[in-house]
Amino acid sequence: MKHQTIPLFALPLTRTDIDCGGIAEFFDTVVKPSKGRSNTDGTTVYETPLIHYHNDQNVFEIYDELKDLGDRILDASNFVYRDVMNHDMELRFTNAWFNECGVGGRQFMHNHCNSVLSGTLYLRADENSHIQFQTPYGMNDFGNLLLDEANTKRPNRFGYSHHFSIVTYKVEPGACIFWPSHLRHGYSENRTPGRLTLSFNFLPATFNCVYKV
To answer: Can you tell me the distance from the alpha carbon of 97 to that of 119, in angstroms, rounded to the nearest whole number?
Structure first.
């Protein structure tokens, strides 16, 4: 049947691709303290499940070598905030930090404060890498509670996933994704050796004619 579906109250997850060549190596040689050890073949053994580096700072202000990357990410964030999400104000970083996770580690569901837009650039990822987002709409707050669980836990024949409580999005190196900061996100048991990401938060310099930062 010919039809049109209107995405009412949709929340955008926006992907751009950013050249991040050499950034993982910069992290390994400059940013990362001696947390791991090497095998005899030179590969790294990742012994800790999840480590955040500079998560209360802005790495683009700490390392001059990352300034160009930070400028490109900021340009992408403003495209998402202004052109995709239809806001007028320009964004600024509130913080930016590295995350490294070994096999078996995980990031519990959480959201970010002190920001309106959040994002992550994937530096070291493989076919097992993903991020999960949790619906902001509790199942008790909307919809019919008498759901046919077998059918609602899969996309329909048009590819729409109306009733998922958690959506898994697969990622790869160079993928830079942005989402509204209030969305809860994380990932289950990591199977990517040395999974490495660069995450960031943004606020506008001015909210409106009344509220300023």
So the answer is: 11
